[in-house]
Every structure is written in structure tokens, then in C-alpha cells.
Amino acid sequence: MTPPPPRYPPFTSLNAPYPSPPNLLSLVAAAVSAIVKYNNYRPFPLRKKRHLSFYPMHPSPLHSPPLTFTSPDSLSSFLSPRLRDNSLATWGSVPGTKTIHNLYHEISQGETSLLLSDETLIRTVHVASINIRNSQGLVLVESKQLLSDGSVRERSRPLSEKMKPLESIEEAVARAVREELGESVVVEILDGSSNVRVEERESLSYPGLRARYVLHSVEAKVVQGIPEEGEFETEETGEDPFDITGEESEGKAVTVKRHYWKWADERDLKR
């Protein structure tokens, strides 16, 4: 008689080899892979992100500290032997230039940093530059300025304003619009339009002094308060004839009295 088949599979001998345990690194890799897929997150981007370089008003320890002065006279004494061809004498006397009182005020207010590196003087200024566009896509350009000494300074650039310490670009834009275009003017900054670049050249306001301009530029559109065609002019409301000591500097510091505006094609502006 044939015996019935066994109810259970044959018993495996204890001497049979067991499969090797999983590698610890492979378990960690599998767990990370599962987390990444779950969160739909790529920990190592395929494309390197762009980072904008900012140049703070107060330099890092890698830079020389900014220079400070107790009066316009002390600033003048420091600059006179360091500027070429006695260019300090042209400040305020050549149309379109500013005076030693203007530079002293900028340094005292933190709008300008004056650095001395390897016997080279550099004036560093952070500037908010606003490209305001009308409904036709034209850019608002300041064609010229009327100064307090009666001279006219050619500009041919968008609305610009020196930034104050720790001031954001949004705050600088709002102040520039209010002081140069008027209280009733409203513009809207376009999302993602902020950009920063650095330019170095000799200062037009202070001949003989090297300048580094850190330009914080944004795009904006007109909401209300600006004529969208033709030319117009506005009165400056942000500058006063007093320096930070409270001493009246009328006739010493050159201030802007009026701004003259026009709409221009961006391609003509670049040329």
C-alpha cells in the first residue's frame, strides 16, 4: 500500500545556509529614496541656483572700515592731498557737481561709505533704480535736474535714489516716488523684477573720486498720478538746506529743486 503524501513540506535542515542579512547602507538609501519620493523633493538640484552679490553699507572684516569725519573741514583736509590734479577745487564750482558739504552729509547719514584701500579712495553708494513703465511699455526717464545754484544737470536715467542704511528696496522705491514724483503718485513693483549689479567709475558729482555704485533695480508700472505721455516736471521735496549738525548749509550744499521727466524707449535709453 502506497503511503499518503506528507501534509507539510519537508523540514529544512538546520544546517542549510540562511540568506545574508541586508546591507545597512542599502537600507538607508532605500529609506531616503522613499522619503524623497513621498515629499516630491529633490535634495540635489540639477541646476545650480544663482545668488546675487550684495555689498553692505558697513563692510565685513575683510574690508577696511569706513572713514568717519567730524566736520566738512576735516573731510576736506583728508581729501585734498589724495585727489589728483586739485580736483577738489572743482567741487561745487563746475556746473553739475556737488560740494564738500554734500559728501559730508552723505557720509554722516550713512548714504555713502568712504573707504581707503591701498591708498585708493572709493565712495560706495547703494542706489535704488526704478524702471517705471506706462501702458505703451515706455520707461520714465529723468532728463535733467534744476539745482539750487541755478545750474542744470543732465541725467538721462530712470528714477534713482540713494538708499539709506538697512532700507529695503521697497522702502527706497516708495521714498523715491514720494520725494521726486509726488505724494499722489502710485506705482506697483512687478514680482520677480529685482536685480543687483555693481558699476565702478569716476563720480560725476565729485570729480576725481572713484565711485562704486551698487544698483538695486526693479521694474514697476504706473497705477495713478503720472501723465503717461509727453514731458512734465516735478518739485523735489526730500532735500533740505540743513546738514546733520543743524547748521544751515544754504549756499554750501547743492540741492535738487526740480526734476524734468519724459517717456523713452528702452532701446534708446540703453544706447
Plain-language structure description:
By secondary structure, this protein is an alpha+beta fold. Helices cover 19% and strands 30% of the residues. It is built from five helices and nine strands; from the N terminus they run H-H-H-E-E-E-E-H-E-E-E-E-E-H. It has helices spanning 24-39, 72-79, 100-109, 169-181, 266-270; strands at residues 112-117, 120-133, 139-147, 152-162, 186-189, 195-202, 210-224, 232-235, 256-264. Strands 1, 2, 3, 4, 5, 6, 7, 8 and 9 form a nine-stranded mixed sheet that branches. Strand 1 and strand 2 form a beta hairpin. It is flat, with a radius of gyration of 32 Å. The protein starts with 23 loop residues before the first helix and ends with a helix. Residues 228-248 have a biased composition (Acidic residues). Residues 227-250 are annotated as: Disordered. This is Nudix hydrolase domain-containing protein.
Short description:
This is Nudix hydrolase domain-containing protein. With 271 residues, the protein is an alpha+beta fold.
